[in-house]
């Protein structure tokens, strides 16, 4: 009897795909390799889905259906000799992917931009009012005429309401 150590070698490490290779310390008795995906459901039961035969398997790690547990089964003349498993992380944070949608920093930038726009509009209105008052005060006679006309109009309106 001989102890054989099995492991999965990952190469090349990339963001989108990975190649898994079944490596044994002594593969002289091995006649065939098979890669299967172990699928777990919410009840805790597992099902096995055969993927391909061969010593290596290429997986797209961005695809959610490829995430989970993978096993390399190795066979001899009289049946299965053993297996070795590898787990691909199912959480996007562990594999370095960002979730789609707005992040908090994007929302903060949009909010600050909107606030800045509102402040600029208010400042523009204040400046416009200041310039208008400045023009009127340059001509005191014009100011008197404008106020006199508006005062007379208000007086006439009050008199008409009383009648």
From TrEMBL:
InterPro entries found in the cross-reference section: Ig-like_dom, Ig-like_dom_sf, Ig-like_fold
Q: Does the keyword Membrane apply?
A: yes
The membrane spanning regions, by residue number, are: 107-127
Q: Which Gene3D superfamilies match?
A: Immunoglobulins (2.60.40.10)
| Taxonomy, superkingdom | Eukaryota
Q: Which keywords belong to this entry?
A: Membrane, Transmembrane, Transmembrane helix
Please give the name of this protein. Answer: Ig-like domain-containing protein
Q: Which organism is it from?
A: Champsocephalus esox (pike icefish)
